[in-house]
Structure formats: structure tokens, C-alpha cells
Amino acid sequence: MKAGGKMNNSFENITPDSLTGALFAVEGIGDACTILNGPTGCKFYHSAISDSQILRNPGYDPLEHLEINHFGQPRIPCTYLDSQDYIFGSGEKLSRIFKSTLESAAKKKYRLIGVINSPGAALIGDDIEQFLDSTIRKPAEEKLRGIPCFSLENTGFSDSFGVGFQKAMIKILETLPMNERNAKPKTVNLLGLTIYQKYYRQNYKTIKKLLELCGIEVIAAPGAGDTTTILSKIPEAALDVIIYPEYAREIALYLETQFGISYICLDEGPPIGFDSIKAFILQICRALNADPNKAIECIEQSRARAFMFLSRFSSLLGLPKGAFFSIKAESSTSYALTKWLCTYLGMIPAAISMNNEIDSIFAEKLKTFLDTINYPEALNNSVIETPTHILLGDGNTILELKNKGQKFCGIEIALPALGYLDITEKTLFGDQGALFLLEQILNGLRYVL
């Protein structure tokens, strides 16, 4: 409690860091097991989010997961370090959890095991690679050998989600057996998708569907649920496409160095909004000499549908033109959304807050665009303190603004979420994503203004 009775802003501390990024890099592999070397307090949130993003069981019964390291959760077994382990080392607990995981690997169909140190565990100094050698790489029983495994002893401490995600993903790609480099024409890998993104699964499907209309095949999207078998085909792609540079630039550089795969970063950011998705299709088709016409036709059909609703809505209420919006997101997402909302819908930026994931190129593009439309102050305004009609961000930011008593419509575009059950699959990407966001905005404005 601050002086004068004003409470501290606890929501600002709920920010995914490099440990979260590393854990979800491994959890984003469809047949991988993530072992957390750390206290139980570092486990529960990450395990719950992973299980909710990738549903593997029809029910949820904690009694099905009674293994000593699972604590009633299906994902991310943990060594549950305590004070004694920080003094005498965690070797005994590491050996036990490695053996237990390996014994259940066949039943649970693990094809990769990743061991991630919590920041505190990284200070102990245990030789995790030695334990992996003796218990997983070279166990006494020959039938247990052969599962690729790796350890990440330092995720970056207080670095951002993107730093930890890319560190772990590069470790994964170094560890997995890969096919020989044999580039197939008109094929791509999609880089920067993670299971910690809102609607990641349908975003991935949407991109694949649009690229298929262009005759382009997606080989893999590391971190978005693909299995180790699919990831082994990464060297077969003709091109790497960076969807989110905040989570993929280092991965793209690694793949270029290791396998000679060239890469492109999207000029208009992730494919959010009609103009951005059209630019996405055209840029990739130019790079691969593919035909974009079928995909463009699909986008234009959705744009025509949007026009019908926009025209009627605008003639009755004069909106959404002139309505205010605020954004809290990555720099690339903030740029794509801001440009679309301003140029397509005629909305006005009230406040834009880039979270810890900042790409310098898109941060500068966003600044330049705001200067061009004479709203540079939006980057300096607080998302929480500035009145707005529409807020696009994570659930915690939306809840924080609601606690301020403001009247607005919150649209979740990122995690953490407020708990809404998304039974119907939704997407933020492509023409269908544009229609979904437009639906949310128009319906939200009806109750705000």
C-alpha cells in the first residue's frame, strides 16, 4: 500500500519473462516433455496454461497425475527444489525425475525431453548435462536409450519472453535429428508462432490455408504444436517467413547459418487486417514466384462482406470513424493493428503501449506512422490512464482498466486471458481474423457510445 492509501499496481508484475518463453518453446512441440528444475511455485501457472492451450485429455482429474513430480497436473514435471537443494545441490532430485520421465516416455509418446532451469536453480551450479548422460542418453537399460534431450541452464534471468523462447528453440533445433538440406520449391517455415499466443492454433491453420491457395506448402512452425517428426523436415523449406520478429529473428539467423535457408521479415507485420494479410500474401508470393490470385480473391470477398456491415453501421451511428482505441501488444502487432484501425476504420489512437517484446524496426515504423497522422502522443500516453472506447490487449490489462471504472470495450488479443472459454475456434490472422476483430469492435462500440 502506498502513502495516501493508493494500492500498488500488481498487474504490471504479471508479465511473461524468459523462463516462461523457454518453457513454452518446449511445450510448443507436440511430443516433447518439459522438465522444470525449480520450485513448485514456478510450475503451476505454466503447466495450467500449457494444458489449456493444447488439450490432450477430455477430462481433468488431478488423481490421474499422481506422479511425485507432477503435483496433479499433466504437464511440466518439476523437481520441487527447496532450501536444502540450494545449499547441497539438486542432483538426487534430478536423477529421480529423469528416470521417472524416461520410464513413462513410451506410454506418453515423448520424442524430446527438455530440462529448463528456473533462475534460482541456475545459481546452484549442478551439471545437468552429466545427469542427462547417465540417466537418459546412456542409461543402464539399452531399451530406454535414444530419446533426444537437452538442458538450458540459464534462460536469461530477467530477459523478455522472446529471449527465452528463442534460446530454447535454437537448443531444440540443435538437439533434434534433422533431414538433409533439400529445398522444395514453394515451401516455407513459419517462425515466431508460439502456444502462448491467443488463438495460435487457428492462426496457424489460417495462414496455411491461404498459402495453399497460392500453391505454397508450409513445412513447419516450430513452437506452434508441430511434432518432432515435422520439425525434422525444416531444412526442406525454400524460405523462412518471420511472422513475429520479436520471437524469431535469432531463430531465422540460426537456420540460415546452419542450413542455408534464406528468410524474410514481413514488411507490414503479422497478417492482421485486410491490408496486412494482402501484403503478407504478395510478399511471400514474390519471393517464391507463386500465384497470389486465389488468396487475394478470398481476401476481397471477406472485405466485401465487411463493407456491407460497416456501411450500415456507419450510416446509423457514424462509427467506428472517430472512435478512440488503445493497444497493448508487441511492437509488430501494435504497428499492424494501429495502421489498420486508422486507415481502414478511421479510428483514433488514444494510447499504444508496446510490451517487453520490442522489435526496433517495427517500433520505428509505428512511430513514423503516428507522426504521419499527427498522433505521436499516443506512444507516450498511458493505456491505463487514457480514456478510450476500445482496448485491444491481454486480459490483465483489460481488467486493470475496468478497475479504473472506465467505460470501454476490451478485446483480448493476447494472454493472460480472463477465462473466457473459446469453444469455437477463432483467429486474429487473415481475412477471417479481420472479420472477427471487426465484429468485436462494432458490437463493442454499440454499448460504449
Structure in a nutshell:
By secondary structure, the protein is of the alpha/beta class. The protein has helices spanning about 20-25, 45-55, 85-90, 90-105, 105-110, 130-135, 160-175, 200-215, 230, 250-260, 275-290, 295-315, 330-345, 360-370, 395-405, 430-449, and strands at about 30-35, 110-115, 150, 185-190, 215-220, 240, 265, 325-330, 350-355, 390-395, 410-415.
Provide the descriptors you would attach to this structure in a database record.
449 residues; Rossmann fold; 4-stranded parallel sheet; disordered N terminus; Oxidoreductase/nitrogenase, component 1; Nase/OxRdtase_comp1
What does this structure look like?
This protein has helices spanning 18-27, 44-53, 83-88, 91-103, 105-108, 128-137, 161-175, 200-213, 228-231, 249-259, 274-288, 293-317, 331-343, 360-372, 395-403, 430-448, and strands at residues 32-37, 112-117, 149-152, 187-191, 217-220, 239-242, 263-265, 324-329, 348-354, 390-394, 409-414. It has 3 domains: 15-175, Nitrogenase molybdenum iron protein domain (Rossmann fold); 187-292, Rossmann fold (3-Layer(aba) Sandwich), CATH 3.40.50; 295-448, Nitrogenase molybdenum iron protein domain (Rossmann fold, 3-Layer(aba) Sandwich). β10, α15 (395-403) and β11 form a beta-alpha-beta unit. It is built from 16 helices and 11 strands. The protein has a 4-stranded parallel sheet with strand order 5-4-6-7, with helices on both faces. A 4-stranded parallel sheet has the order 9-8-10-11. α4 (91-103) packs parallel to α6. With 449 residues, it is an alpha/beta fold. The longest helix is centred in the last third of the chain and has 25 residues, at 293-317. This is Oxidoreductase/nitrogenase, component 1. InterPro entries: Nase/OxRdtase_comp1, NifE-like. Residues 20-445 form the Nitrogenase/oxidoreductase component domain.
